[in-house]
Amino acid sequence: MHRRAPALPRTALLTGVGRRRGIGAAIARGLAEDGCDLALSFHGEYDRRVLGEDADVELLAEELRGLGRRVVLLPGDLADPAVPERLVHDAREALGPLGALVMSHCESVDSSILDTTVESFDRHYAVNVRASWLLLRAFAEQVPVGPDSPGGAVIALTSDHTAHNLPYGATKGALDRLVLAGTHELADRGIRTNVINPGPIDTGWMDDEIRAAGAAQTPGGELGAPGTVADLVRFLLSPQGGWIRGQLLLSNGGFATPAV
Fold first, then answer.
1. pLDDT at residue 1, rounded to an integer
2. Which pLDDT score, from 0 to 100, does residue 218 have?
3. Which of 26, 29, 28 is nearest to 14 (CA)?
4. What is the CATH number of the domain that holds 89?
5. What local confidence, expressed as pLDDT, does residue 260 receive?
6. What family name appears in the similarity comment (predicted)?
7. Plot region of 158 (φ>0 → left; ψ -120 to 50 → alpha; else → beta)
8. Is the pTM of this model over 0.90?
């Protein structure tokens, strides 16, 4: 039986939305403009520890509410295995059934094969892989089975970093596999899943040297911005993007690591 074209989701849970200049915030703005009510998950300790900034998601929420959207803020450390299911539950209690899950959270600490600690590796795995699986599972469980199901969409952000970013890169590879499996395993619920690799995006972590080097590795000589990631997310969640399923999409401006 041919399932009808997916409708634009009216509710979404976004993870990793701590700072207004981050990718998650740009996605939230785009979906709010498209008429989507939002549950925003964040972990302020990560923003302070890794990025050296305080989360300002409360200001983002005020901005989005000014567009007429319902917005609920859901703090939580995704390294805790109880948090993912709670986030989905609380988002659903506040907004009703969820139509989309966008995972832009991560643990990301630079380290290599010889200096990565077991504690750091385990935390990367817990946040980037285990939490993503538990979020995907909880999201799927609230979507009914059958041809009349409203379905749903799941998008995760990934990376192809490897050298000197070992635990981050390794766990992002695992993330890709588990999210892409969802398109096939959750087909009876009408859930479509995709993964986006946006390449290097400056959300405040780049200095001038890194920015220039990254731009030089793209054919157009410039880096993408958080909004370029949001544009693709908005398309994939739209009816026009509904036929794109089970894909790992490179949306990186042609960025390529030079041969060594």
1. 44
2. 79
3. 28
4. 3.40.50.720
5. 37
6. Belongs to the short-chain dehydrogenases/reductases (SDR) family.
7. beta
8. yes
d(CA 225, CA 35): 22
Amino acid of residue 8: L
Nearest to 125 by CA among 181, 170, 75: 170
148, amino acid identity: D
pLDDT score of 122: 97
Residue 172: closest CA among 190, 157, 192: 157
Range of the domain at 192: 11-250
125 annotated active-site: no
Chunk the chain into consecutive blocks of 10 residues (it has 260) and report each block's average pLDDT, rounded to whole numbers.
67 95 95 97 89 88 97 98 98 97 95 95 98 98 94 95 89 96 97 93 72 73 83 96 95 65
Residue 237 is assigned to a structural domain of this protein: yes
Which pLDDT score is estimated for 205? 67
Kindly state the tokens that stand for 33.
């403009």
Does any domain span residue 5? no
Tally the domains of the chain.
1
